[in-house]
Amino acid sequence: MSTTAKKKVNLLLIGLSKRGKALLDLLLEMDDVNVAAVCDVYEDRLQNAVQAVEKVYGKKPAASTDYRALLDVPGLDAVFTPSSWTSHVQVCLDAMNAGLYAATEVGGATSVQQCWDLVRTSEKTGKPCMLMENCCYGQEELTILNMVKLGLFGELVHAEGGYRHDLRREICMGHVDRHYRLDNYLHRNGDVYPTHDVGPIAKYLNINRGNRMLSLVSVASKSVGNEAWVKSHLQQYPQLEEINNRDFAMGDVVVTTIKCAMGETITLFHDTSLPRPYSRGNLLQGSKGIWMEDKHSISIEGITPVNEKSWNPHSWYDLNKFYKKYEHPLWKKFRSSGVKGGHGGMDFLVLRAYLEAVRDQTQTPIDVYDTAAWMSLTALSEESVAMGGHPVAIPDFTDGRWINREPIVEGTYCLNKICKPGRKL
Amino acid sequence: MSTTAKKKVNLLLIGLSKRGKALLDLLLEMDDVNVAAVCDVYEDRLQNAVQAVEKVYGKKPAASTDYRALLDVPGLDAVFTPSSWTSHVQVCLDAMNAGLYAATEVGGATSVQQCWDLVRTSEKTGKPCMLMENCCYGQEELTILNMVKLGLFGELVHAEGGYRHDLRREICMGHVDRHYRLDNYLHRNGDVYPTHDVGPIAKYLNINRGNRMLSLVSVASKSVGNEAWVKSHLQQYPQLEEINNRDFAMGDVVVTTIKCAMGETITLFHDTSLPRPYSRGNLLQGSKGIWMEDKHSISIEGITPVNEKSWNPHSWYDLNKFYKKYEHPLWKKFRSSGVKGGHGGMDFLVLRAYLEAVRDQTQTPIDVYDTAAWMSLTALSEESVAMGGHPVAIPDFTDGRWINREPIVEGTYCLNKICKPGRKL
Question: For residue A227, what are the contacts with CB-CB under 8 A and spacing of at least 6?
């Protein structure tokens, strides 16, 4: 390999569905990345990706329908797997054991043991394992993180979030479109997708660095949304007959409330099987103020007006008015250089966060303890739902080190502390 | 007594604080009501009310600091007690045992047994006992009830609500202003005020009439809001020194999730000790659509546009645009005759609902089973919080009759079924 090639991050991309292909296209635009190898269990998706790489690089990447055959591609640095939920953990374990950085698309674990396996393997191999939670890099979420770290909300007390998205089409058409959600929804009941909401919240609350999640309770509603969607679309899509009259195990709405060691509560809503506008349902409350995503607004003592004599002393103020002053420096720079990539730029930023950690051989801003804690919520939520809302303990994946673990405050993509003013990004 | 006087509802009003006095003023405007007797444990409040009655009626009402001395005032029909939370149940029991209709201002129970006592006493005496949940008669809530009963939301699946109101001043100044909240917040931890949210929701979900609440889990955050408020107002109000450095038992945010027999989930937030704009946080989701109070908006298939091909098929539409078509007939009539009374008219409507039931000697639209079920949530929430979020069973106060109890569909103020079109109100 030439010296120039050496500087690039050599990546194995596993999972080339619609989502994986979009991420591949984004990666192919980065001149410090070499997509060295690609994998999908479906041959057509694999060939589609091979052609896309060849079109840009002028040569084909290594390719296989079995990722294990690709872990020893020469020069490989890292793996990223936007594959189906239930494949994420094994891929990451195999990657770390092969001496590679591991990154997984979001999704929850099916057992707590899986999360321990990730932690122990990362500790043993010294390789980071990053859950690619793009919402941690959302413009609104990063601005709020910045405001939290500046102390504007005072002492944090309560947070809410959700994955509130009408996915009935994606779910019910799963067998037609080779999408993994359908089988999960037919068989599992719990918050199977908690990290878009809990990821940013965990960063606000310093989870695993001075705080941790202690326990949760989950309660699931009945399941009617998908069954009804199938019935009403049978004529349009006769292929749905296969799942017509099937009972879905997944409750349409699963509500999870988490208690943290420092006393905060977090309420999460998994809500993907009923008609409703999209929302991540974020809300954050501290001793000095509140942010509510659905109103795209804040009300914070010291920043927004208060009328103590009124029965309703506080009003909402549009967050847009505060971006100029409080926008996170990472986003400020990103905006000025032109926002790139899907999901409003979040995808680009989370990829860069991972790739630059690989390049610099540093810890990832979402580390294996974050990954394990966030993913474990799915398995624990299923347990609690199965036991009628019984509280379940959330393991301390840091083995007690959360008490004294310091926030990582260096690095462009750090999510633990506000970047120092004037620091070059 | 003259025949004319006989037609009036003779009422004993117990509790003459700021809230009680406002209700008294409203009652004194009604020409079919006779405030025959008034009571407050504080002599100054009592005399203030006596004078107010005398000013309007030209004669003094019966009056005492002990309501038990007033239960045998001649001709008395009914009691209404906007007194402190922990006095409500005993007043209602004594009223029913004296052969009177009983009505209580909102608030929760301190034990489940209290709720059974209300039920058994009502059954034994044949006297109704109505929780005066004014929010059941809110314009927005009644419109949604109308839309629910018309089937527009499809099959209901999930509801949320809350009492989200910065009450730090009222709470912390409790000993100064003789307000009951302070002692409750210093000593209790749970959702002490669930009925503004759960009342309307229970009516949407046909609780106690074809459905019931089965179990709940409650989790409480830490308590920091009131302690901080006291500290920051010590200079302004030196009387606060008495509670400076006291620990408040009440978590700033208490999250409760209820599971219903027909499979629905209800999540309630008690959130009164942090700075935030007022909200009852209502949200209702069914197989066809959603209502969200904080956006004052709906999105309902068949009514609002859907773009099935979009990643986000639904949008929010301002509820105001739908009032004309779907407003509840009771509110339509009320508005055309001129909205009266506090809290946007709700107070007037709930009073009329009670008083007309007394006048007509009919069942109250919120009956003793509603009252018991809703009030029990407070005691049960405290139990669950005390046990770390353990699920607790919600009793079936109907002794199994909920399965076949029919909705009350008659009466101007019925909350169980949409009034028949064209029916005279």
Answer: A245, A246, A247, A248
Chain A residues with CB inside 8 Å of B276's CB? 285, 289-290, 299, 314
Distance, in Å, from the CA atom of B253 to the CA atom of A118, rounded to the nearest integer, reads 34
- Which residue from B296, B345, B415, B413 is spatially nearest to B138, judged by alpha carbons? B345
Query: CB of B389 within 8 A of CB of A217?
Result: yes
CA dihedral (B130, B136, B142, B145) in degrees, to 10, reads -80
- Output the pLDDT for position B329: 85
3-state secondary structure of A41: coil
> Which of residues B419 and B267 earns the better pLDDT score?
B267
CB B189 within 8 A of CB B249: yes
pLDDT at B417: 64
The residue whose two tokens read 């044949």 is: B126
Contact B299, B317 (CB under 8 A): yes
Residue B259 has its nearest CB partner, among A262, A288, A389, at: A389
Once rounded to an integer, what is the mean pLDDT over residues A284-289? 98
- Per cent of chain A over pLDDT 70 is 96
| pLDDT surpasses 50 at A420 | no
Place of tokens 């919240």: A201
Percentages helix, strand, coil for chain A (3-state, rounded to 5) are: 40, 20, 40
Question: How confident is residue A412, by pLDDT bands cut at 50, 70 and 90?
Answer: confident
> pLDDT digits over A228-280, tens only?
999 999 999 999 999 999 999 999 999 999 999 999 999 999 999 999 999 99
| Residue of B8, B12, B21, B6 whose CA lies nearest to B63 | B12
Interface check for A182 against chain B (CB to CB < 8 A): the answer is no
pLDDT of residue B344: 80
User: Closest Cα to residue A256, out of A349, A156, A353, A163?
Assistant: A163
What is the pTM for the complete model shown? 0.96
d(CA A71, CA A101): 11
User: Which pLDDT score is estimated for B419?
Assistant: 43
| Alpha carbons B103 and B15: distance in angstroms, whole number | 12
Determine contact: A404 vs chain B, CB below 8 A.
Answer: no
What is the SS3 string spanning B221-238? CCCCHHHHHHHHHCCCCH
Alpha-carbon distance of A16 to A47, in angstroms, equals: 10
- Report ipTM for this prediction: 0.95
User: How far, in Å, CA of B59 to CA of B62, rounded?
Assistant: 10
Its sign, for the CA torsion A117, A123, A129, A130, is positive
Report the distance separating Cα B425 and Cα B413, nearest Å.
9
From CA A137, how far away is CA A349, in angstroms rounded? Answer: 6
Mutate to test the interface with B, among A287, A291, A380, A384 (most CBs of B within 10 A): A287
d(CA A163, CA A192): 10
Buried b vs exposed e over A272-286: b needs ≥16 C-beta within 10 Å? Answer: bbbbbbbbbbbbbbb
What is the distance of C-alpha A259 from the center of its chain?
20
User: For residue B420, what pLDDT is reported?
Assistant: 41
Query: Is residue A378 less than 8 Å (CB to CB) from chain B?
Result: no
Amino acid, res. B344: G
- Provide, as residue numbers in chain A, all residues whose Cβ is less than 8 Å from the Cβ of B285: 252-253, 271, 274, 276
Task: Report the alpha-carbon distance of residue A137 to residue A153 in Å, rounded.
Answer: 20
A304's tokens: 């927004």
